[in-house]
Amino acid sequence: MSWKSLSSEKETQGTASGFFNLLKRPVEIYVFIDPLCPECWSLEPFLKKLTIEYGRFFTIRPIISGKLSALQQNQINKPEKLKKVWDKTTSQTGMCCDGDVWLENPVSSPLATSLAVKTAELQGKKAGMRFLRKVQEYVFLEKQNISDENVLIECANKSRLDVDEFKRDLHSDAARKALQNDLKLTHEMEVESTPTIVLFNESEEDAGLKITGLYSYDVYVKVLKEMLQKEPSPAIKPDLETFLQHYRFVANKEIAVVYDWSEQQAKKEMKKLVLRQKVREVPVKHGAFWEYIE
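Structure tokens predicted for ClpXP adapter protein SpxH (294 residues):
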């Protein structure tokens, strides 16, 4: 973990009922990710929990990073190595990363995937985050080539984007410029691997606090509190059904992390909702995922 000092004494008020709102908050969190990075995917449960418990204090800004050319060379020359890395990450984190994609249906252009994420963000930050989540689901769970344009368009549709606008913008200068800005920011902040999180407050005079790599949840809470120079209590969690209604499609691991349950207990609670026809279990290679039913 690398550190630069930054702190803020300003604090905004939040309520449990407003835990999904995006208001002006004192801390901004830059999350440097690569859509094809299994550790970035494994960060998802912690980001969900942090948003629910302390989201009233921060906003999240995803930044597309990663060594695109290096990944493309690995995809061509070392598919077996990538498969092993993904499978190992799954066993360590509990978030399914089906490494067979590199043998069966490899991602042909990481650059195309990154450009598509920035294209989606042209329709707003929330739209971009929904799209990013969807392409991650497609590659890590469904072994889809998320650089294929038809697959990207399908992801845009399922992410509730304006698909016609997405198609128009996919090869636009605006998308390329947005990606260039992300890569420039990655260089300026000396981010050399993903995932990396940089937190900083409203004061432009201060530097940021940087966390490189994947850590336990309490580390992220500790860093956030150091930024705030306060010890705020976590917000009251929403009931399970409200959580599922908001996120729509979640890993059993994500539920377990958010609600401080074992994965066995999370699955038991979800089975109750299956019986009530509120959710359905989605089979994946490792673990379990759940989809909310309207």
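The longest strand covers residues 27-33.
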